[in-house]
Design a protein that fits this description.
The chain has four helices and 13 strands. It is of the alpha+beta class. It has a five-stranded mixed β-sheet. Strands 1-2-3-4 form a four-stranded antiparallel β-sheet, with no helix packed on it.
Length: about 200
Amino acid sequence: MADGGRNWLPTGQFHVAPPESGHTEVAASEPRTTCAQADHRPRGPSQLGSLLPVPYTTVIDVLLLLSRDDRVLLARRHNTGYADGQWNLPSGKLEDGEDVVDAIIRETHEEIGIELDRDEVRFVSSIHYKAPEGHSRIGFVFTVERWNGEPANREPDKCSALGWFPLDQLPTDTVPYTAACVELFQRGEHFGLPGWEAATRPLMK
């Protein structure tokens, strides 16, 4: 294709049109990229990342339902920025590199100071909870019949008190997420979708 008196070659070189003297000059040039070529050039991972949709992720919680004489242990949230002053189950988030049983053993020790034997941990239910604000999260609820030590507040910067409450008479200021977990436990149901409009009943027992 002619361009300003120069003939472009596929190799990226061009010939200068011969002057009247008959002398021909040849000069090298950077390869030219056409619009069609630009549209089909390979893209690196960093470029592809900006084009691909970001996959959905959600929080995975582990919650301990510790019961004694038909009472359940709850912790009053404090200075966390969410539901402060309300009661919830000892709980925390799954961390990278650990399974959910490792997570509940770790969180239990960090929050209330008792030691759990992995073989004693029993699954209660899984819950896909949708809060009134619209965000959702997935929780795995566990219980144990035996443990080592006596529950104590190990995180006073995040918890203002611990208390044992009747399973069927939780405090009015219990976090709804926790209340839903306790309700599943009492009904003997192993899966729940509280907060989702389509969830009229549990799918599994």
